[in-house]
Amino acid sequence: MTEDTGVLIKKKRAALRTAVTKYIQQLEKELKKNESDDDEVEELLEHLSEKFESLKVVDRECETLYKPAEIDKELEVAEQYWDKIITWRFRAKKHLRKSNKLNSNCESGTATEIAKLTETIKVPKINIPKFYGEINQWLSFWNSFKTAIHDNSSLNSIDKFTYLKGLLCSTALATVEGFAITAENYAKAVEILKVIWEKRRDYKFPYAEIVECYSFKTLK
């Protein structure tokens, strides 16, 4: 890669990051209103998602340009942008779901399904905290979920996946949010969640770097 090409790639990344920041600020402003314009939120979400896809490509291209001493800092900055995008996409989707623009969400649709399940299935009485993606909370969450749900022989995989989605929020939910609730996808979703948060905890790998190791499209 020539020096001029490297400069162009970095300029493209800077422009994308500026656009991402602009859309996030507009989303934040819109969502703070007492009566948000759902169409505006939906449009901003679409723009943000498109920029996210472009930014992921450019971030990968930029990795070949880093000097050894720059790698950690550059990956940290990239992760911060990815985390912001994922967080605000989640908030926008949650708002639209509450406005019946989307089908289900962490607090209502999945919760309703869980309520129906608990009427017919005996689940151990254990207080499972919701998991928002904090690294230091993963082990506690997984141990509780494993005891009450994952190892519960009276639940099938589809039921377990329903419970799992109902207990995930923010970046954790965004990781598996688009997966159809099937037995096959439950096993894959659990594997991905464990890899992402256990590697981040044990080896301090950036979230963005780990997520890019998986093709989530094949799991939908």
From TrEMBL:
PANTHER family: PROTEIN CBG08539, RETROVIRAL PROTEASE-RELATED. Residues 24-51 form a coiled coil. The lineage of its organism: Eukaryota, Metazoa, Ecdysozoa, Arthropoda, Chelicerata. This is Uncharacterized protein. The keyword Coiled coil applies. It comes from the Eukaryota. Keywords: Coiled coil. It comes from Araneus ventricosus (Orbweaver spider). It holds the Pfam family DUF1759. The keyword Coiled coil applies.
